[in-house]
Structures are given as C-alpha cells and as structure tokens.
C-alpha cells in the first residue's frame, strides 16, 4: 500500500511557528556543551571528539542547493562524535531535533523551504536515506532509556520496511510494542505492524492490528489518530477491492479531520477518497478530491505530499486516456521529488512515466525510465521497488516479443518478492511468467504457474484473482477444454497436498468451474 496512506511517523517536534533557524551555538547550549570549558575535558582524545562536535554544528555550512543528505551532514557527524565519547543522552537529544533543510532555490526566508517539523531520525526516512537512518538509530538503542529506545525502534522498523526487510521491521515494532512507555506508543507500534502486514497481503491481520490501535486511540480521545487509523482501514479494504466500506472509512476520516481543523489530515483523506473513486472509475470525483488534496499540500508547502498527489492525479488522467496530461503530471511528480531529494517519489514517477510510454508503444523509452527507477531502488536498497521495476521491465520486453528476456526479469522479480515475503508481488510475478510462457506456447508451464498465481491471489483475497482467471481462460482457448481440464486437475491435486490444501482446492474449484 502507498506509504502516504499510513500512520507511520514517530518523534515529531512541535509545529514550526516561525522561520527562525536555530544557530549551531543554540544547539550546543541545549546539549550542554560549552566552548569555553572545552580545554577542561580530559583525556585529549575525548576533547578532540567534542571539538569535532562543535565544529560540525557551528562551522559546517552546506550550500542551499546541495543534496539533502549534505544538509543533514553537520548533525549526523556531530551525533557520531558524541557516540564516540559515550555521550548517549546528548546524542539522543540531538537526533530528536529538526534540521533546517532548504529544498528549493527560492529565497531562503520562504517558510515552505525550511524543513523543521520532523526530528533528524525521521527526516532521514522522509528523504529516503534508510541506511543512514538504520545506522543512526542502531547505535543508540539500549544506551539511554525506554523512551529513546521506543523512538529508535520505531524509526528502525520504518526503515527496514521501506527497504523490504519485512521480518526485521516486524521484529523492531514488536520490540517497540513490548517496551512502549505509554499507550500512544503502543498505538503507533500496532499501526506500523498493521502497515507491514498490509504490505505482505495479510489483510485480516492488518485489520485486527488497526482495530487494536483504534481502540487505544478512542480511549485516549486522540481524534487525529482515529482519523489516520480509519484512513488505514479504508486503504486495506480498498486493496481487497471492497470499495464501499473503503469509502465509508475515508468519509469518517474526512469528517473527523474537518471537525478538528486538521488541514494536512484533510489532504490525506481527500487523496484516499480520490483513489477509491479512481478504482470505482468515477474519474470526475476522483479528480475533484485529488485536486482538493493538491491545493492543501501546496498551501502548506508540503512538497512530498504534493508529489504523491500529482502521481495519483496522473493515474486518473491516464485512465481517461489523456496520456499527454498524465505524462505532464508524472513529469511534475518527478521534478518535484528530485528537487526535494525525495528518492522514493522519483522512483515512483519514473515507473509512472514508463507505464505511459508503454501505453503509447514507446517501449525503448519506457525501458529507460524503468532502468532509472531500478537504479534508484537499488541505490536506496528498496527491495520492494526493485521487484516492481523488474516486473515492469519484464512486461515491456513481453510487448517487444523478447520473451526470454522478459522471463529473466520476471524471475528476478519473483526472487526478490519471495525473499521479502511480499505475497502480492510474488503472485504478480508468477502470473506474468504464466502469461509469457503462454505466448511462447509452453502451455503446461503456463497452466502450472497460472494456477499457482490464482492460488496466491485467492489466499490473500486479492482482486487480481480475476486477472489470473482471464489468463487461464486464454490457455483453455489455446489448447482445448479437455487438455486444459487435465492440466488444472493435476495442479489442484498438488495444491491439495499442501497445508490447508483441501479447503483451498474447494475454493479454487468454485472459481474455476462454478462461474
């Protein structure tokens, strides 16, 4: 599911009320580090480390147009020097601060260009620097107290999930839940666990976790949290193709955020509703809701949200066959994501542009976009994104009738999806292999893989069951109903031997023969 649909943040500072950028001296004062007493620190190696902290916080001046990671560098280096002298509390206080980030070339006193809302450990994740986020938080766990461990385990879980390391992410959030010092922290841990299981296609588990989190949120009278969790429940129902309850959840979400005046929450709810209308093919309502979300994102200067909504709006116009406008919106999504250093946004936009090019039979250009997106996914360690990029490349080579190359890409995609436990992506890769083997007229293999993809999609209650059924029907038309029925029976017998296989086969028979 889209990360923009989810409650997955922790460690936020108070909202910015002015454009005053904290000086390095003021940060040192907050940390209790005084330059005047530096010479009193012994031994010398320790004094050297503190001198490095002071220099990084006061003398490091990145250029306004430098990459985001370079703008965060001063605090990151100061953090590592504090860790070197076991100044764990000071290090913890430093990474819970927001770091000024200039994300455009507009005048520096423009409020939309100063990114202070998130703490440093969260900023790294926001801009896609997941390895750095993991390195930062791993160093300090177990060094201060449960409150700091709670924050760092949360960030670690988010980073591992973004990298496709789902099992590690689950372990982090389970540890977070076990030590959560307050109900609010429990709510966040449960929510993030729900997000992971949603990504794994285990929707019922995700719903149960969200419901537990929602119960805590209601107890705490946390209306903002309730709204976000209702939004998450809506997303899960949407992913299952249950658009009516999804719409109801998002309407409830919208009602609460309007009531409490949460403009950013309104933007999120409007985008969620827009996506539901998109899947219901009510493109006018989809566009209206997304335009509302886009306006609020621009009002707050939330360029990450703006980039995401531009992509969603592009999807609407793509479905309306307005490929020119869709391409323009995706290009805006790409440029804006690049401007703010939002690597995941760039990766998504490149994938979107590739899809547009495929639809207009510009296959070579599509391949270039997908390869650029694949390079970003590999650069940031986004295994999920890598799997999807490989899948898109496979589909494009199928359009070019270069089937053997397509098969290699789909196999790579399947290997990653299976490795990270992404059942939906694994099912999609197996389905794509099935269709490619069908085109190669290797019908035995096509039927075997087609049944396997149908089985996976049925187990996770994915709407892609229909897609798998269509491919199997094409195989039946190619080889005749008698040979098809024989192949299908063979695969049903194999599935029946697996755990809970008898029940699964009963459901598959109903799909295959009773419709």
TrEMBL record:
<dbReference type="InterPro" id="IPR011990">
    <property type="entry name" value="TPR-like_helical_dom_sf"/>
</dbReference>
<dbReference type="InterPro" id="IPR052386">
    <property type="entry name" value="GPSM"/>
</dbReference>
<dbReference type="Pfam" id="PF13176">
    <property type="entry name" value="TPR_7"/>
</dbReference>
<feature type="repeat" description="TPR">
    <location>
        <begin position="187"/>
        <end position="220"/>
    </location>
</feature>
<feature type="repeat" description="TPR">
    <location>
        <begin position="307"/>
        <end position="340"/>
    </location>
</feature>
<keyword id="KW-0802">TPR repeat</keyword>
<dbReference type="GO" id="GO:0005938">
    <property type="term" value="C:cell cortex"/>
</dbReference>
<dbReference type="GO" id="GO:0001965">
    <property type="term" value="F:G-protein alpha-subunit binding"/>
</dbReference>
<protein>
    <submittedName>
        <fullName>Tetratricopeptide repeat protein</fullName>
    </submittedName>
</protein>
<dbReference type="InterPro" id="IPR019734">
    <property type="entry name" value="TPR_rpt"/>
</dbReference>
<feature type="repeat" description="TPR">
    <location>
        <begin position="267"/>
        <end position="300"/>
    </location>
</feature>
<dbReference type="GO" id="GO:0005092">
    <property type="term" value="F:GDP-dissociation inhibitor activity"/>
</dbReference>
<dbReference type="Pfam" id="PF13424">
    <property type="entry name" value="TPR_12"/>
</dbReference>
<keyword id="KW-0677">Repeat</keyword>
<feature type="repeat" description="TPR">
    <location>
        <begin position="387"/>
        <end position="420"/>
    </location>
</feature>
<keyword id="KW-0963">Cytoplasm</keyword>
<feature type="repeat" description="TPR">
    <location>
        <begin position="150"/>
        <end position="183"/>
    </location>
</feature>
């Amino acid at each position: 599911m889209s990360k923009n649909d989810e409650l997955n943040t922790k460690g936020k500072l108070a909202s910015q009320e002015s454009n005053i950028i904290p000086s390095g001296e003021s940060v040192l004062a907050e940390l209790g580090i005084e330059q005047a007493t530096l010479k009193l620190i012994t031994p010398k190696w320790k004094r050297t480390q503190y001198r490095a902290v002071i220099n990084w916080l006061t003398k490091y001046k990145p250029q306004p147009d430098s990459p985001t990671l370079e703008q965060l560098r001063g605090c990151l280096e100061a953090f590592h020097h504090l860790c070197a002298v076991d100044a764990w509390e000071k290090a913890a206080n430093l990474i819970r601060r927001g770091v000024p980030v200039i994300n455009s070339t507009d005048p520096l006193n423009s409020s939309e260009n100063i990114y202070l809302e998130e703490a440093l450990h969260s900023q790294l994740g926001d801009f896609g620097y997941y390895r750095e986020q993991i390195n930062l938080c791993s160093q300090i766990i177990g060094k201060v107290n449960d409150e700091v461990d709670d924050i760092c385990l949360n960030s670690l879980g988010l980073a591992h999930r973004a990298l496709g390391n789902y099992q590690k992410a689950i372990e982090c959030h389970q540890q977070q839940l076990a030590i959560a010092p307050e109900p609010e922290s429990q709510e966040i841990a449960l929510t993030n666990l729900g997000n992971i299981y949603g990504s794994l296609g285990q929707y019922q588990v995700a719903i149960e976790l969200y419901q537990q989190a929602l119960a805590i949120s209601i107890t705490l009278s946390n209306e903002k949290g309730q709204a976000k969790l209702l939004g998450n429940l809506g997303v899960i129902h949407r992913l299952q193709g249950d658009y009516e309850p999804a719409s109801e959840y998002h309407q409830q979400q919208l009602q609460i955020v309007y009531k409490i005046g949460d403009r950013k929450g309104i933007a999120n709810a409007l985008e969620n509703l827009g996506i539901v209308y998109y899947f219901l093919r009510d493109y006018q309502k989809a566009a209206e809701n997304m335009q509302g979300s886009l306006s609020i994102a621009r009002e707050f200067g939330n360029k990450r949200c703006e980039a995401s909504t531009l992509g969603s709006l592009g999807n609407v116009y793509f479905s309306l066959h307005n490929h020119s406008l869709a391409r323009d919106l995706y290009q805006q999504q790409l440029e804006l994501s690049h401007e703010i250093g939002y690597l995941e946004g760039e990766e998504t936009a490149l994938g979107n542009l590739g899809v547009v090019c495929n639809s207009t039979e510009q296959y070579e250009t599509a391949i270039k976009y997908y390869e650029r997106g694949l390079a970003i996914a590999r650069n940031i360690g986004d295994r999920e994104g890598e799997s999807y990029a490989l899948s898109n490349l496979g589909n494009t080579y199928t359009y070019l009738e270069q089937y053997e190359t397509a098969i290699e890409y789909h196999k790579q995609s399947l290997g990653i999806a299976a490795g990270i436990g992404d059942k939906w992506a694994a099912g999609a890769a197996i389905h794509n292999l099935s269709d490619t083997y069908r085109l190669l007229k290797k019908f035995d293999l096509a039927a075997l893989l087609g049944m396997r993809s149908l089985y996976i999609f049925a187990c996770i209650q994915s709407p892609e069951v229909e897609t798998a059924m269509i491919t199997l029907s094409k195989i039946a038309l190619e080889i005749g109903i008698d040979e098809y029925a024989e192949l299908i029976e063979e695969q049903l017998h194999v599935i029946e031997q697996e755990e809970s296989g008898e029940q699964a086969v009963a459901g598959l028979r109903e799909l295959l023969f009773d419709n």
